[in-house]
Amino acid sequence: MSVSKEFLYGLPKAELHLHLEGTLEPELKLRLAQKNGIDIGQTTIEQVKESYQFDSLTSFLAVYYPAMNVLQDEDDFCDLAVDYLQKAKAHNVKHCELFFDPQAHTSRGVPFETVINGYYKGIEKGREMGIDAHLIMCFLRDMTADCALKTYQKALPYRDKILGIGLDSDERDNPPMKFAQVFEMAKKDGFHVTMHCDIDQQDSIGHIRDVLYKIGVERIDHGTNIVEDPSLVDYVLAHKIGFTCCPVSNSFVTSDMKGREMTYLLQRGAKITVNSDDPAYFQSYISDDYYALATKYNLSKEDMIQIAKNSFEVSWISDEAKRKYIRMIDEYAASVE
């Protein structure tokens, strides 16, 4: 018997793979479009929902990026972050490290400072709600390495507002090593680093090998193709590399959740975590992902507790904070038995 949805909603957890731009719910998108006078081609919430149709990473991105046009000023970015954090609170998210894509906005004329300051205002409000929220700045891998470097330079005056550096967007023909220079700079400057290794990409194993051995990431976003190379699995076990997996979003862009791979890695002791990725588009927030994975693959309550503990263990917080949150999980689990 799988664990109950109620238990999973109440389970204290961290979210480590969440794209703020992917939390743009139809209601907020329509409101911001009307506020900013943006013609999005839809005039009702139902029409916006109908536009969220995709069956691959490429078709998803074709819907995802145009939707961002409604984000124009600091208040818009703040509202987007707060909208997500309010939902996260309902899922008992205690800590989150949130991806944002400045190039998706600067490339359409929105200043970098508008993006970072708006999002930061939002996460400050999240902290007032009791959620320890932080920002991870991602580079769009389908843009040039030079553009990533220029974005990094723009970010340095705001380094106190950025916890880590990531890499996302379309992986085809955009391998990790394309961005080796800027990630080496980020590591030297003291930023945490992670990279997307999306599922079932061309040369997935080669990309995973490079992010581990050459880039030296602390976490891999997605990354379950690693099971194809036992030596790489041994490496991540030895180095306690975290995986930020997103089962529901996987099921939209491929034929399954990759739950078998996640379960295998979890049983091996890998630091598997479960996250919601782009929840407005997949209509699944973090506890829903927990429940979908547990139900389909018959995972136990103990398995899901371990996944929640992993989420804090591979987060970029102090050891003291990790211990605090893990005690919180133990206390919660004992209180509902």
Beta fraction: 5-15%
Radius of gyration: 19 Å
- Round the mean pLDDT to the nearest integer and report it: 96
Number of helices: 17
The count of strands amounts to 8
Task: Please state the overall shape, judged from the principal axes of the Cα atoms.
Answer: globular
Poorly predicted runs are none
Q: Secondary-structure element order, as H and E?
A: HEHHHHEHHEHEHEHEHEHHEHHHH
The end-to-end span amounts to 15 Å
Give the helix proportion (percent range): 40-55%
Q: Taking strands numbered 1, 2, ... along the chain, how are they ordered across the largest sheet?
A: 1-2-3-4-5-6-7-8
- What about the largest sheet? 8 strands, parallel
Helix/sheet category: alpha/beta
Question: How would you summarize the topology of this molecule?
Answer:
Blueprint: H1 5-10, E1 13-15, H2 26-36, H3 45-51, H4 57-67, H5 74-90, E2 93-100, H6 103-106, H7 112-128, E3 132-140, H8 145-155, E4 164-168, H9 180-188, E5 192-197, H10 204-215, E6 219-222, H11 230-239, E7 242-245, H12 247-253, H13 259-268, E8 271-274, H14 279-282, H15 286-296, H16 301-313, H17 319-335
Helix pairs in contact: 2-3, 5-7, 16-17
Structural notes for this entry:
It is a single chain. With 337 residues, this protein is α/β, with parallel strands linked by helices. The protein is 53% helix and 13% strand. The chain contains 17 helices and eight strands. An eight-stranded parallel beta sheet has the order 1-2-3-4-5-6-7-8. The protein starts with a helix and ends with a helix. The model has no long low-confidence stretch (mean pLDDT 96).
